[in-house]
Amino acid sequence: MLYFVIRAISNLFDLYSIALIVYALLSWFPGAYQTKFGEFLTLIVEPYLKLFRRLPLQFAGLDFTVWVAILALNLLNRVVFYLIGVLLMLL
């Protein structure tokens, strides 16, 4: 049972990372953010990206906000699973 909960959490981290990548790729297509799918992704992804938009992550016309957000999400994923591992060892 616990394995399935841990696996579900891992899958949620992976799914959100994919959503961030797809959101970044939408910028290559004009009007993609105005579609239903684009609006849905914006609703899900933008609150998290706003945490990183305050940082100076734009260089030479390129925005590295999504890249840094994915790195932070992967770091959070590792920390969460490390803490779960520590808790399981204590039980």
From TrEMBL:
Cellular component, GO, one term: membrane
Superkingdom of source: Bacteria
Keyword annotations of the record: Membrane, Transmembrane, Transmembrane helix
Transferase among keywords: no
Listed InterPro entries: CCB3/YggT
Residue ranges crossing the lipid bilayer per the database entry: 12-33, 64-90
Sequence similarity: Belongs to the YggT family.
The protein, known as: YlmG protein
The organism of origin for this protein: Streptococcus sanguinis
